[in-house]
Amino acid sequence: MRYYLDRFPEAIDFRPELRGYVPGPNFKPRFASDDPAEYLSLLQARADSQGAALLPLTGGTVQVGALPSPAMGIDRAVLKQLVRAIHQGQGLSVTYLAMRAEGPSTRTLWPHALLNTGLRWYVRAYDSESSSFRNFVIARISNAGKSEARSPVPSSEDSGWHKHVTAHVVLHPKLNAHQQAVVAREFGMKRTGKQWVWSVELRQCLAGHFFRRYGLDAKPPVPPSSHWVVLRNRAELRPYFLPGGSE
Fold first, then answer.
1. Could you read off the pLDDT of 137-157 as tens digits, one per residue?
2. N or C: which end of the chain has fewer CB within 10 A?
């Protein structure tokens, strides 16, 4: 509080009856935005963690309910090794439990980023087995140890991470006018000509997960009852769709 008062004394007023401070007439956000998505993301994180670390940011008076997520099965030691390897630019020898393999495989990864798809956590890394940059489900790494081998390819050459694509998400054409207004509002779409559009810039390595999450990769024709939105530039983005059955 002292830090805030020293820098923005005009922003808050002291109320003796409350024994605390309240926003003043000149208050405006300084360290956070007034975007609802930011606050709701903090509430979601608090609900997921079931911990008290975010209470000072979200307030303890707002009760939050959320659907339970899988425990993820992420090994604490593995996560520490991944984060350390990213910080230090080092490789790791890991045991990976791929769904399409008959058993565990040992490979060397050179990780440089973590990814979240809303369902799982991944590590983005150069892979010795496939000689390419790939996403690996962190929960499927059963152990990890430091590797002295140098990465054959620097992370700066990971085009899937550095290059972006833009998805133009539009309303299903068979929604009626009222349904279109409801869905456009829910998705925060903007009017472009005669069409409501949600334009989303995505890293190439995350694009397929985005399409899968919103059912945008479903084979047409799709019913409006289950697919409120569709991809306007589907043909352009089809190469980034995930293989069937994967996430």
1. 999 999 999 999 999 999 999
2. N
